[in-house]
Design brief:
binds zinc ion; 353 residues; six-stranded parallel sheet; globular; 12 helices; alpha/beta; seven-stranded mixed sheet
Length: 353
């Protein structure tokens, strides 16, 4: 019970302020009967982590979250010790933990919308230590077995779940022509999930050559350069004139709305994943009304973790080609710079012990 004592220490990345990330000794997280102590084996850097590092993440600017904090919500690891009630977990098990941790008691939690729980914790953000650390103590209710999945793939279950949520919200079927705006990590997972759901055509749109290439390699029928090509004509050509019956918006760039309306087929569904950082955009609502368009906000991947794990296990979704850089856990700041600059075609950076 070395770790239960709370006396043992561990190393973790702790953010003390904007641009101030320290790999330092902290207390090992305490284990209670409903928690599982996990040795972190892979943790990937998300755009949210870059915002936390820069001090611009909305939870920080609104005062909801505070420094110092240990970030990291896309992770996997190996069980070291399970609390007395966590009988489903045993030392050596490979696990992944969710980002949203609901109270399990409110009406939202009880109908499965725990990602909207008002009292929720969020891993690496609110009330739950993040995974850029040697160990993480995690509530058993939000921990999943990832069986024989590699740790790097398992660290990508969180963004995969987000993509599954968007594909389900927009009800993608084999009849659909799907356009994914933005071929960042989430967009590249959305391309693969739409493919796995049997979409007739999957078209990725981005401006960065490395990401367009990755989209093609990961199964997109076409990858369109938003800068050079005539986007609307290209979507028309690729869909036999039908246009997009589903658009998954994963850029957070408000200018996307300028081209969106003319890209949509009548009755189309739009899944919104990207956040615009508070910047407003003028939307012409008339085409949305006239074409009977549905727009869905998509947050997290509630209840979809087992599905995301299965998609990876069955090889329908992979992280190879998305994870481009690997660094030691202690080199968080360097990883953030690579993720930010996208140097050498960087898409996703994974940190490992
Ligand atoms: Zn993330
Ligand atoms: Zn709740």
């Amino acid at each position: 019970m070395l770790f239960n004592s709370g006396e043992a220490g561990m190393k973790a990345i702790r953010l003390h302020g904007p641009g101030d990330a320290r790999w330092e000794e902290v207390d090992c997280p305490p284990l209670d009967p409903d928690r599982v102590l996990v040795r972190v084996k892979a943790a990937s850097i998300c755009a949210t982590d870059v915002e936390l590092y820069d001090g611009v993440m909305v939870y920080l600017t609104s005062g909801l979250a505070r420094y110092p904090l240990i970030p990291g919500h896309e992770w996997s690891g190996e069980v070291v010790e399970a609390g007395a009630h966590a009988t489903a977990f045993h030392p050596g098990d490979r696990v992944v933990g969710e980002c949203s941790i609901g109270c399990r008691q409110c009406v939202l939690c009880r109908r499965g919308a725990y990602h909207l729980c008002r009292d929720r914790c969020e891993t690496g953000l609110l009330g739950q230590q993040g995974a850029f650390a040697e160990y993480i103590s995690f509530p058993r209710f939000f921990l999943h077995h990832c069986r024989d999945l590699g740790f790097e793939d398992a660290a990508c279950i969180e963004p995969t779940g987000v993509a599954v949520h968007a594909v389900r919200r927009t009800r993608v079927t084999p009849a659909d022509n799907v356009v994914v705006m933005g071929a960042g990590p989430i967009g590249l997972f959305a391309v693969q999930v739409a493919r796995a759901y049997g979409a007739r055509t999957v078209i990725a749109v981005d401006r960065r050559p490395a990401r367009l290439r990755a989209a093609r390699e990961l199964g997109a029928d076409a990858a369109i350069d938003a800068t050079g090509d005539d986007l609307i004509h290209a979507v028309g050509d690729l869909t036999g004139g039908l246009m997009a019956s589903v658009v998954i918006e994963a850029t957070g760039n408000r200018q996307v709305w300028d081209s969106l309306a003319s890209m949509l087929a009548p009755g189309a569904r739009v899944g919104m994943l990207g956040l615009c950082g508070g910047s407003r955009c003028a939307v012409d609502f008339d085409p949305l009304v006239v074409k009977d368009i549905s727009v869905f906000g998509c947050l997290g991947g509630p209840g979809l973790w087992e599905e995301a794990i299965s998609l990876h296990q069955r090889g329908l979704v992979r992280s190879r080609g998305i994870v481009t850089h690997r660094l030691p856990l202690s080199e968080f700041s360097g990883g953030v710079e690579i993720a930010r600059s996208q140097a050498n075609g960087a898409i996703k950076v994974v940190l490992q012990p």
